[in-house]
Protein backbone atom coordinates (compact mmCIF):
# COMPACT_ATOMS: atom_id res chain seq x y z
CA UNK A 1 0.00 0.00 0.00
CA UNK A 2 1.32 3.38 -0.92
CA UNK A 3 2.36 6.16 1.39
CA UNK A 4 2.03 9.82 0.60
CA UNK A 5 5.10 11.71 1.66
CA UNK A 6 4.11 15.13 2.90
CA UNK A 7 0.46 14.25 3.45
CA UNK A 8 -2.44 15.68 1.47
CA UNK A 9 -6.04 16.40 2.38
CA UNK A 10 -6.98 12.72 2.04
CA UNK A 11 -3.82 11.27 3.51
CA UNK A 12 -4.57 8.11 5.45
CA UNK A 13 -8.00 7.67 3.85
CA UNK A 14 -8.95 4.72 1.69
CA UNK A 15 -11.38 5.44 -1.14
CA UNK A 16 -12.93 2.87 -3.48
CA UNK A 17 -13.83 4.05 -6.97
CA UNK A 18 -15.71 2.01 -9.59
CA UNK A 19 -15.40 3.07 -13.21
CA UNK A 20 -16.14 2.05 -16.76
CA UNK A 21 -18.83 -0.27 -18.08
CA UNK A 22 -19.34 -3.90 -17.22
CA UNK A 23 -19.51 -6.54 -19.91
CA UNK A 24 -22.05 -9.30 -19.46
CA UNK A 25 -21.30 -12.25 -21.74
CA UNK A 26 -24.01 -13.72 -23.96
CA UNK A 27 -21.68 -16.34 -25.42
CA UNK A 28 -17.88 -16.51 -25.89
CA UNK A 29 -17.91 -13.78 -28.55
CA UNK A 30 -20.78 -11.47 -27.54
CA UNK A 31 -21.73 -9.32 -24.57
CA UNK A 32 -24.21 -6.72 -23.23
CA UNK A 33 -22.75 -3.44 -22.00
CA UNK A 34 -23.52 0.14 -21.12
CA UNK A 35 -21.88 2.99 -22.98
CA UNK A 36 -19.03 4.31 -20.83
CA UNK A 37 -15.51 5.45 -21.61
CA UNK A 38 -14.44 5.24 -17.97
CA UNK A 39 -12.81 8.65 -18.24
CA UNK A 40 -14.69 10.45 -15.48
CA UNK A 41 -14.14 7.61 -13.02
CA UNK A 42 -10.45 7.34 -13.83
CA UNK A 43 -10.07 11.11 -13.43
CA UNK A 44 -11.76 10.91 -10.02
CA UNK A 45 -9.48 8.07 -8.91
CA UNK A 46 -6.44 10.09 -10.00
CA UNK A 47 -7.69 13.28 -8.33
CA UNK A 48 -8.28 11.46 -5.03
CA UNK A 49 -4.79 9.93 -5.16
CA UNK A 50 -3.30 13.31 -6.00
CA UNK A 51 -4.51 14.68 -2.66
CA UNK A 52 -3.19 11.75 -0.70
CA UNK A 53 -5.92 9.10 -0.70
CA UNK A 54 -5.15 5.44 -0.94
CA UNK A 55 -7.37 4.59 -3.91
CA UNK A 56 -8.68 1.22 -5.04
CA UNK A 57 -10.02 1.61 -8.58
CA UNK A 58 -12.30 -1.23 -9.62
CA UNK A 59 -12.36 -0.89 -13.37
CA UNK A 60 -14.56 -2.49 -15.97
CA UNK A 61 -13.16 -3.10 -19.45
CA UNK A 62 -11.75 0.23 -20.68
CA UNK A 63 -8.71 1.28 -22.67
CA UNK A 64 -7.24 3.76 -20.20
CA UNK A 65 -3.93 3.98 -18.35
CA UNK A 66 -3.97 3.58 -14.57
CA UNK A 67 -3.73 7.00 -12.87
CA UNK A 68 -0.60 7.62 -10.81
CA UNK A 69 -0.65 6.21 -7.29
CA UNK A 70 -3.85 4.20 -7.81
CA UNK A 71 -4.29 0.49 -7.06
CA UNK A 72 -6.32 -0.94 -9.94
CA UNK A 73 -8.44 -4.09 -9.94
CA UNK A 74 -9.71 -5.06 -13.40
CA UNK A 75 -13.06 -6.80 -13.70
CA UNK A 76 -15.40 -7.65 -16.51
CA UNK A 77 -18.89 -8.35 -15.15
CA UNK A 78 -21.14 -6.72 -12.55
CA UNK A 79 -20.83 -9.77 -10.30
CA UNK A 80 -17.03 -9.50 -10.46
CA UNK A 81 -17.25 -5.77 -9.73
CA UNK A 82 -19.47 -6.38 -6.70
CA UNK A 83 -17.01 -8.98 -5.41
CA UNK A 84 -13.99 -6.71 -5.95
CA UNK A 85 -15.69 -3.83 -4.10
CA UNK A 86 -16.48 -6.15 -1.20
CA UNK A 87 -12.88 -7.38 -1.14
CA UNK A 88 -11.59 -3.79 -1.06
CA UNK A 89 -13.44 -2.93 2.17
CA UNK A 90 -13.04 -1.33 4.63
CA UNK A 91 -12.95 2.14 3.12
CA UNK A 92 -13.57 5.68 4.31
CA UNK A 93 -15.45 6.60 1.15
CA UNK A 94 -16.67 5.04 -2.07
CA UNK A 95 -17.43 6.72 -5.37
CA UNK A 96 -19.43 4.53 -7.72
CA UNK A 97 -18.95 5.94 -11.18
CA UNK A 98 -19.26 2.69 -13.11
CA UNK A 99 -22.00 2.25 -15.67
CA UNK A 100 -22.97 -1.17 -14.40
CA UNK A 101 -25.07 -3.30 -16.75
CA UNK A 102 -28.48 -3.67 -15.14
CA UNK A 103 -28.94 -7.19 -16.50
CA UNK A 104 -26.84 -10.18 -17.31
CA UNK A 105 -27.59 -13.15 -19.53
CA UNK A 106 -27.19 -16.83 -18.80
CA UNK A 107 -24.22 -17.18 -21.12
CA UNK A 108 -24.00 -19.99 -23.65
CA UNK A 109 -20.74 -21.96 -23.41
CA UNK A 110 -20.58 -22.16 -27.19
CA UNK A 111 -21.09 -19.52 -29.85
CA UNK A 112 -24.78 -19.07 -30.64
CA UNK A 113 -25.36 -19.65 -34.37
CA UNK A 114 -27.78 -17.71 -36.50
CA UNK A 115 -29.75 -20.78 -37.56
CA UNK A 116 -31.91 -21.07 -40.63
CA UNK A 117 -35.49 -20.64 -39.43
CA UNK A 118 -35.25 -16.86 -39.26
CA UNK A 119 -36.16 -16.45 -35.59
CA UNK A 120 -33.44 -14.66 -33.58
CA UNK A 121 -32.49 -16.42 -30.33
CA UNK A 122 -34.31 -15.12 -27.25
CA UNK A 123 -32.15 -13.46 -24.56
CA UNK A 124 -33.16 -14.36 -21.05
CA UNK A 125 -31.95 -11.62 -18.72
CA UNK A 126 -31.46 -11.62 -14.96
CA UNK A 127 -31.10 -8.40 -12.94
CA UNK A 128 -27.63 -7.70 -11.58
CA UNK A 129 -27.12 -6.79 -7.91
CA UNK A 130 -27.05 -3.05 -7.22
CA UNK A 131 -23.46 -2.57 -6.03
CA UNK A 132 -24.07 0.97 -4.77
CA UNK A 133 -27.23 0.13 -2.84
CA UNK A 134 -25.56 -2.96 -1.43
CA UNK A 135 -22.59 -0.97 -0.22
CA UNK A 136 -24.81 1.74 1.30
CA UNK A 137 -26.59 -0.96 3.31
CA UNK A 138 -23.47 -2.97 4.17
CA UNK A 139 -22.26 -3.63 7.70
CA UNK A 140 -18.88 -2.24 6.65
CA UNK A 141 -20.48 0.79 4.98
CA UNK A 142 -17.94 3.52 4.16
CA UNK A 143 -18.67 6.78 5.99
CA UNK A 144 -19.33 8.55 2.69
CA UNK A 145 -21.01 6.74 -0.20
CA UNK A 146 -21.31 8.62 -3.48
CA UNK A 147 -23.30 7.46 -6.51
CA UNK A 148 -23.54 8.77 -10.02
CA UNK A 149 -26.71 9.14 -12.05
CA UNK A 150 -26.50 9.49 -15.79
CA UNK A 151 -29.85 10.82 -16.95
CA UNK A 152 -31.23 12.09 -20.23
CA UNK A 153 -34.32 13.86 -18.84
CA UNK A 154 -35.74 15.19 -15.55
CA UNK A 155 -32.16 14.94 -14.27
CA UNK A 156 -32.67 16.39 -10.78
CA UNK A 157 -35.91 14.52 -10.08
CA UNK A 158 -34.38 11.20 -11.06
CA UNK A 159 -31.18 11.94 -9.13
CA UNK A 160 -32.98 12.96 -5.95
CA UNK A 161 -35.17 9.87 -6.08
CA UNK A 162 -32.13 7.70 -6.77
CA UNK A 163 -30.25 9.08 -3.77
CA UNK A 164 -33.14 8.14 -1.49
CA UNK A 165 -33.71 4.74 -3.10
CA UNK A 166 -30.09 3.68 -2.92
CA UNK A 167 -29.37 5.04 0.55
CA UNK A 168 -26.21 6.83 -0.54
CA UNK A 169 -25.03 10.17 0.85
CA UNK A 170 -24.43 12.01 -2.39
CA UNK A 171 -25.47 11.60 -5.99
CA UNK A 172 -23.49 13.24 -8.74
CA UNK A 173 -26.10 13.75 -11.43
CA UNK A 174 -24.95 13.95 -14.92
CA UNK A 175 -26.96 15.17 -17.92
CA UNK A 176 -26.09 12.81 -20.74
CA UNK A 177 -28.62 14.12 -23.25
CA UNK A 178 -25.81 15.90 -25.10
CA UNK A 179 -22.44 14.44 -26.08
CA UNK A 180 -21.02 13.81 -22.60
CA UNK A 181 -20.43 10.13 -23.27
CA UNK A 182 -16.77 9.84 -24.06
CA UNK A 183 -16.51 13.63 -24.34
CA UNK A 184 -14.03 15.80 -22.47
CA UNK A 185 -16.47 17.97 -20.48
CA UNK A 186 -19.19 17.21 -17.97
CA UNK A 187 -22.09 19.17 -16.49
CA UNK A 188 -22.98 17.80 -13.08
CA UNK A 189 -25.25 18.52 -10.12
CA UNK A 190 -24.23 17.42 -6.64
CA UNK A 191 -27.27 16.15 -4.73
CA UNK A 192 -26.73 15.93 -0.96
CA UNK A 193 -28.94 16.09 2.13
CA UNK A 194 -28.47 19.85 1.94
CA UNK A 195 -30.01 20.05 -1.52
CA UNK A 196 -28.75 20.45 -5.06
CA UNK A 197 -25.60 22.24 -6.10
CA UNK A 198 -25.23 22.76 -9.84
CA UNK A 199 -21.69 23.08 -11.15
CA UNK A 200 -20.85 24.85 -14.37
CA UNK A 201 -19.82 22.79 -17.38
CA UNK A 202 -16.23 21.75 -16.66
CA UNK A 203 -13.55 19.55 -18.17
CA UNK A 204 -13.75 16.07 -16.60
CA UNK A 205 -10.41 16.50 -14.73
CA UNK A 206 -11.82 19.63 -13.06
CA UNK A 207 -15.05 17.88 -12.09
CA UNK A 208 -12.83 15.19 -10.59
CA UNK A 209 -10.62 17.63 -8.69
CA UNK A 210 -13.59 19.50 -7.26
CA UNK A 211 -15.31 16.30 -6.19
CA UNK A 212 -12.10 15.03 -4.56
CA UNK A 213 -11.85 18.30 -2.65
CA UNK A 214 -15.46 18.01 -1.49
CA UNK A 215 -14.84 14.46 -0.34
CA UNK A 216 -11.78 15.60 1.61
CA UNK A 217 -13.86 18.30 3.34
CA UNK A 218 -16.60 15.79 4.18
CA UNK A 219 -14.16 13.22 5.57
CA UNK A 220 -12.31 15.87 7.49
CA UNK A 221 -15.53 16.56 9.33
CA UNK A 222 -16.08 12.90 10.20
CA UNK A 223 -14.47 11.09 13.05
CA UNK A 224 -12.78 7.97 11.69
N1 LIG B 1 -25.01 1.07 -9.78
C1 LIG B 1 -24.41 0.00 -9.16
N2 LIG B 1 -24.80 -1.27 -9.47
C2 LIG B 1 -25.77 -1.50 -10.36
C3 LIG B 1 -26.40 -0.40 -11.01
C4 LIG B 1 -25.98 0.87 -10.69
O1 LIG B 1 -23.51 0.20 -8.34
N3 LIG B 1 -26.14 -2.74 -10.64
C5 LIG B 1 -24.58 2.43 -9.41
C6 LIG B 1 -23.86 3.20 -10.50
O2 LIG B 1 -22.47 2.99 -10.44
C7 LIG B 1 -24.23 4.64 -10.14
C8 LIG B 1 -25.62 4.51 -9.54
O3 LIG B 1 -25.74 3.16 -9.12
O4 LIG B 1 -23.40 5.14 -9.13
C9 LIG B 1 -26.74 4.86 -10.43
O5 LIG B 1 -26.73 4.03 -11.55
P1 LIG B 1 -27.99 4.09 -12.53
O6 LIG B 1 -27.78 3.13 -13.64
O7 LIG B 1 -28.23 5.52 -12.85
O8 LIG B 1 -29.13 3.59 -11.53
P2 LIG B 1 -30.21 2.47 -11.67
O9 LIG B 1 -30.71 2.21 -10.30
O10 LIG B 1 -29.66 1.28 -12.41
O11 LIG B 1 -31.36 3.17 -12.46
P3 LIG B 1 -31.72 3.23 -14.05
O12 LIG B 1 -32.98 2.43 -14.16
O13 LIG B 1 -31.91 4.71 -14.30
O14 LIG B 1 -30.57 2.65 -14.84
CA1 LIG C 1 -28.76 1.34 -14.49
Automatic annotation (TrEMBL):
GO biological process: coenzyme A biosynthetic process; pantothenate catabolic process
Cofactor remark from the record: Binds 1 FMN per subunit.
Region Phosphopantothenate--cysteine ligase, annotated ranges: 15-224
Keyword tags: Decarboxylase, Flavoprotein, FMN, Ligase, Lyase, Magnesium, Metal-binding, Multifunctional enzyme
Needed cofactors: FMN; Mg(2+)
Documented EC number(s): 4.1.1.36, 6.3.2.5
Residues noted as binding CTP in the record, renumbered to the chain: 102, 111, 129-132, 148, 162, 166
Catalyses which reaction(s): N-[(R)-4-phosphopantothenoyl]-L-cysteine + H(+) = (R)-4'-phosphopantetheine + CO2; (R)-4'-phosphopantothenate + L-cysteine + CTP = N-[(R)-4-phosphopantothenoyl]-L-cysteine + CMP + diphosphate + H(+)
Pathway: Cofactor biosynthesis; coenzyme A biosynthesis; CoA from (R)-pantothenate: step 2/5; Cofactor biosynthesis; coenzyme A biosynthesis; CoA from (R)-pantothenate: step 3/5
Coiled-coil residues: none
Family as reported in the entry's similarity comment: In the C-terminal section; belongs to the PPC synthetase family.
Function: Catalyzes two steps in the biosynthesis of coenzyme A. In the first step cysteine is conjugated to 4'-phosphopantothenate to form 4-phosphopantothenoylcysteine, in the latter compound is decarboxylated to form 4'-phosphopantotheine. Catalyzes two sequential steps in the biosynthesis of coenzyme A. In the first step cysteine is conjugated to 4'-phosphopantothenate to form 4-phosphopantothenoylcysteine. In the second step the latter compound is decarboxylated to form 4'-phosphopantotheine.
The protein's name: Coenzyme A biosynthesis bifunctional protein CoaBC
Protein species of origin: Tardibacter chloracetimidivorans
Lineage of origin: Bacteria, Pseudomonadati, Pseudomonadota, Alphaproteobacteria, Sphingomonadales
Part of the intact protein present: 175 to 398 of 398
Amino acid sequence: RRRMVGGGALSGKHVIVTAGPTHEPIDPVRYIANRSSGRQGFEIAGALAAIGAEVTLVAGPVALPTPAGVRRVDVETALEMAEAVEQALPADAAVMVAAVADWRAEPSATKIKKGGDGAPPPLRLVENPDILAGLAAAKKRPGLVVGFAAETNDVLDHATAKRARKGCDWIVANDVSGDVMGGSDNTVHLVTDAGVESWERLPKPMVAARLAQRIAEALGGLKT
